[in-house]
Amino acid sequence: MGEMEDGYKREESVALLVIVVLATLSLASLFVAFSYYCYISNKVSKHLKSLKGRNEEKEKAAPLRSGSGRGSGSGDGGGDVPILAIDSGVQVFSYKQLHSATGSFGKGNVVGHGSFGAVYRGVLPDGRKVAVKLMDRPGKQGEEEFNTEVELLTRLHSPHLLTLVGHCSDSGHRLLVYEFMANGGLQEHLYPTKGYACSCGGISKLQWDTRMQIALDASKGLEYLHEHVSPPVIHRDFKSSNILLDDNFHAKVSDFGLAKFGSDKAGGHVSTRILGTQGYVAPEYALSGHLTTKSDVYSYGVVLLELLTGRVPVDMNRPSGEGILVAWALPYLNVREKVIEIMDPALEGQYSMKDAVQVAAIAAMCVQPEADYRPLMADVVQSLAPLVKNRSSKKISSSSTSQSCKPATKPEYD
């Protein structure tokens, strides 16, 4: 009997030993498997980060990469001056090449004066007409604005944004080269006697259909920045002088030196110093420095009011209560019978009352004091599109605008 008990005990001990050994082996296997998993995950993570880092470095370096290009027309000595680099269609020019293209930056080729320097008409060796902005703002701010514009316009591509042809950072010079917009800025067509030489007696010849096409083009430019770019881009200085017109009076948004990336969060904002142009700055941004895409929507609404009324955003020479365009116009915009009272007299007989009331309603929504009540630019585009007549079979107008009222100045590109 005792021997049987001893046998059972030995079997139990062996079984227990086997169980312990198997359990130990299982734990060891799990530990090895987990360690291997961590090792592989770490290697994969490092590899992905490395690839991402290299791609980001390539993207950042892209506008500034140097390389050979076709020889092009020359500078002062008459020899060939190569284009230093080409990336995504944006060229890096030498100062000598742009000096030659603009006729040595001669006064006769000045076509405008932006806030960052003079703008010159130029012709590249391949015959393309360009506008060359010679930035003369010294210091860190000027450098930041130059870099911002190059960075954004190199990456953003829309038919409703002004095209950056190239740039130059050579021997301390900072120059931006744009496509040439033959009909200059919207501002000079709306206000032909306010600092712009014109033979049309101070009355704008910009017709209703053309104004609506300009409004739609500009809204598509902002829609692209706000809703087709991530994070969204906030222009921060949207105004009539920064809407440029080609030879067919189609509009493009320009001047991205003050632009900022917005928040990806719904309803989010970025805090920044308050910059912009008086009369166009949204109230919440002016008071708090909180910047959102709705700040641009407000500025767009002011431009839409300019197109409707033919008045500048701020004119303290007007009678009491009429000096600030938004404050004066807002009470009229949602009252059908009163809309006619604010319309530009130069537009008489060119529009239907239904269309005028609808555009006034869009403007009223855009300039609401509370940012949350303003529409998205996609909604503005959708509302304006039906009002723009199909002109695919003919050029946008203007026998009267481009001939009778040809401005002496050209694009501001500021």
TrEMBL record:
Molecular-function GO terms, alphabetical: ATP binding; protein serine/threonine kinase activity
Membrane-spanning ranges: 14-39
Binding site for ATP: 140
Low complexity: bias regions: 395-406
Keyword field contains Glycoprotein: no
Region called Disordered, residue ranges: 51-76, 390-414
One protein family per Pfam: PK_Tyr_Ser-Thr
Swiss-Prot/TrEMBL keywords: ATP-binding, Kinase, Membrane, Nucleotide-binding, Serine/threonine-protein kinase, Transferase, Transmembrane, Transmembrane helix
Record flagged with keyword Kinase: yes
Comp. bias intervals (Basic and acidic residues): 53-62
Start and end residues of each Protein kinase domain: 105-388
Similarity field: Belongs to the protein kinase superfamily.
Protein name: Protein kinase domain-containing protein
